[in-house]
Amino acid sequence: QEIRKVVQALEQTAREILTLLQGVHQGAGFQDIPKKCQKAREHFGTVRTQLESLKTKFPAKKYYRFHEHWRFVLQRLVFLAAFVVYLESETLVTREAVAEILGIEADRERGFHLDIEDYLSGVLTLASELARLAVNSVTAGDYSRPLRISTFINELDSGFRLLNLKNDSLRKRYDGLKYDVKKIEEVVYDLSIRGLNKEATVGAGGEK
Q1: What is the CATH topology of the domain spanning 1-194?
Q2: Count of CB atoms situated within 10 Å of the CB of 22
Q3: Where are the domains positioned within the chain?
Q4: Where is Mg(2+) bound in this sequence (predicted)?
Q5: pLDDT digits (tens, 9 = 90+) for 67-119
Q6: Long-range contacts of 55-62 (CB under 8 A, 24+ apart)
């Protein structure tokens, strides 16, 4: 019961962060990305407090006995942290960096930690979000962003190909990455057909 209460509070905070970040998909959203990321990071302060509280509700050695209770919300928080870091620097957040943002351990031996499969699931959710962002970038007239997203997602896909995924739910999520790659490729292809990719490359200047 105690665990469930804290998990519900975490879910609420995750919803607030998601609502905030969804604003980047709107036309004017690209202008204030830094402001949205800063606000999201403030919300992660609440997440850290809530996770601190969660740690006190069960014996540290029984992490996996209760893991199912918070697994889903933790994966969602990984995705949100990864999305913030991507929007800030267009890089992939490491598991260690996510653990730091959430105020938990990366190392299993040290107690309440970020399970590797929860981290990977969150990253796969990021891929779907970026596929959507690529489409909405074009609508907003930002033609260079889809090209950068395409490079990032292809690198991500290459990384996942190196993994031997045994977990069924993770395997299914990974299968979805193929569709995200395809969706972004279609956006980039459409830009090249319309000659907008050249404009994007010139417009991007020295940007990544």
Answers
A1: Methane Monooxygenase Hydroxylase; Chain G, domain 1 (1.20.58)
A2: 14
A3: 1-194
A4: 129
A5: 999 999 999 999 999 999 999 999 999 999 999 999 999 988 888 999 999 99
A6: 55/104, 55/111, 55/112, 57/2, 57/3, 57/6, 58/3, 60/111, 60/112
